[in-house]
Design brief:
rod-shaped, Nucleotide Exchange Factor Grpe, Chain A, domain 2, 3-stranded antiparallel β-sheet, 69% helix, 6 strands, mainly alpha
Length: 286
């Protein structure tokens, strides 16, 4: 064998050995350490960039202006993407603020409704209180008047007896002592009437007045052509009224056979108004 063949055989022998060593090293590295996800992504990005560079380099070499334009486009795209992201975030924040504002508006409307309801209830309670106060005041006044009326009605027969006793005593002949005694009783009677007047009680003594069935109680009729028809002739028992209420009607006799009582004349003010109206009607219209 020549020297060249010996070298060729040694190289052939060494090649399989190297191949075997290479086959053994590859699985050992893969088993010992796996590439991280970030490293894998970086590697992929590097390969893509290299691929694009190789592709562009295969066609033509980029000029400086093209590189500047590419950088500007990349910056614009990045700015646009950033603006879109911020715009979306602003839209989300605006929607959240509007939602919170709507909730606050609902709470405010609910509070306003409760305030209005409370005000209406307070006004109703105030009106009820005023009505109750006026009603109780009127009831107290009515109770006091009824109590006074009851006492006055109980005293009226006593007053009638005193008046009849005084009238009978004055119709008889009396000594000076007896006359003074009757005068004293008459003074007591006057004081009692003053007390009744102070309480709003007034006597009804309608002798010579027109008969009023609301205030007078007719117990007899007397023919008298000299007086108007239905005139009170005699008063057997005086009546009494308190304010506008008649406590006791007067017991009277009524005349008949006379002329009819004329209608009451109108008041002076009414006459003046009528004269003014007649004068205005008589004046010529311009």
């Amino acid at each position: 064998m020549s020297a060249e063949e010996t070298q060729t055989g040694a190289a052939a022998t060494a090649a399989p050995a190297d191949a075997e060593e290479t086959d053994v090293k590859i699985p050992v590295e893969s088993a010992d350490e796996e590439p991280k996800a970030a490293d894998t992504a970086d590697a992929a990005a590097t390969e893509d960039a290299a691929h694009e560079t190789a592709t562009e380099g295969g066609d033509a070499t980029m000029t400086e202006e093209e590189m500047v334009e590419a950088a500007i486009r990349a910056g614009e795209e990045a700015a646009e993407n950033d603006f879109k992201l911020k715009y979306e975030q602003a839209q989300d924040e605006l929607a959240e603020v509007r939602r919170k504002l709507a909730e606050a508006e609902e709470v405010r409307e609910s509070a306003d409704a409760r305030v209005q309801e409370a005000q209406d209830r307070a006004q109703r309670l105030q009106a009820d209180w005023e009505n109750y106060r006026r009603r109780t005041a009127a009831e107290r006044i009515a109770e006091r008047e009824r109590a006074t009326e009851k006492l006055v009605c109980a005293l009226l027969p006593v007053i009638d007896d005193i008046e009849r006793a005084i009238d009978h005593a004055r119709s008889q002949e009396m000594s000076d002592d007896m006359s003074q005694f009757v005068d004293g009783v008459d003074a007591v009677h006057t004081k009692m009437l003053d007390v009744l007047v102070h309480e709003g009680v007034e006597p009804i003594d309608p002798k010579g007045e027109a008969f009023d069935p609301l205030k007078h109680q007719a117990v007899g009729r007397v023919e008298d052509p000299d007086q108007y028809d239905e005139t009170v002739n005699d008063v057997y028992q005086k009546g009494y009224r308190m304010a506008d209420r008649v406590l006791r009607a007067a017991m009277v006799t009524v005349t008949y056979g006379g002329a009819k009582r004329p209608a009451p004349e109108p008041e002076e003010a009414d006459g003046e108004d009528a004269a003014a109206q007649e004068q205005a009607a008589s004046e010529p219209q311009e």
